[in-house]
From TrEMBL:
Chain residue ranges for the region called Disordered: 1-52
Organism name: Halorubrum aquaticum
Stretches with biased composition (Basic and acidic residues): 1-31
Highest taxon listed in the record's lineage: Archaea
InterPro entries in UniProt: DUF7108_C, DUF7108_N
Limits of the DUF7108 domain: 52-134, 139-224
Pfam family membership, one: DUF7108
Compositional bias annotation for Acidic residues: 32-45
Protein name (Swiss-Prot/TrEMBL): RnhA operon protein
Amino acid sequence: MTRTDDEPPEWAKERARELMAAEEEAGRPTEVDENGPGEPGEDDGTDRVPDVPAEVVDEAERLTRLAREAVDPAAVEEYRDRRDELAADHEYTPRLREEDDTLVLYPEEWMESGTVQLDRIEDTDRAVEVSLSGPGDADRYREVAAYNDAVVDAIADRADEVHVETARSFAAFMSNHYVRTVDDATPEMRAEFREEFFPRNAWPTDEQRAVLEESLETIERVATAIDEPEP
């Protein structure tokens, strides 16, 4: 019979026979890992639980905090709608557990008429819980907030009031939403402040809007001169 191009060479067949013989002697069945070595399969226990991406959880938490901080009812509703739609895209439903101030993301199949059905819960690890009582470690939050407040005080001594008001809003934004100092803001955080937090939560005057970039530059400049907040 003529050998086709797809047929393995004789040395490969011989090697396969040797491996099969060794496995039979050890009493193990021959198995083929279709995923290749080192790659997780469907049943190898490496599936993510919960099965909502970590970045989605982070964004849901961020939108929840923004909704709580917002003073404009329309902004509150928009943040909540965005959070709910984001969770729904991954077949999850967000709920706030008020008794311990926790954001919980439940798989949609557990829900009926807005209520969790206990008889549908097959694996509690699929739910996600995020505490909203104080982002990150409480001591770290107090340290960051004190530093940011010290920067605002320093700006009040060195700059016009229009910059002070914006600095106060930026300090609150960085402390409450990211637990980071004002001079540690990334370009993405600054963009979020400009485009979302500032217009919706700071109630800026026309003058504040006109000099926003100058205010942010003032914050950064003054912060570089401050090492630690005064006790």
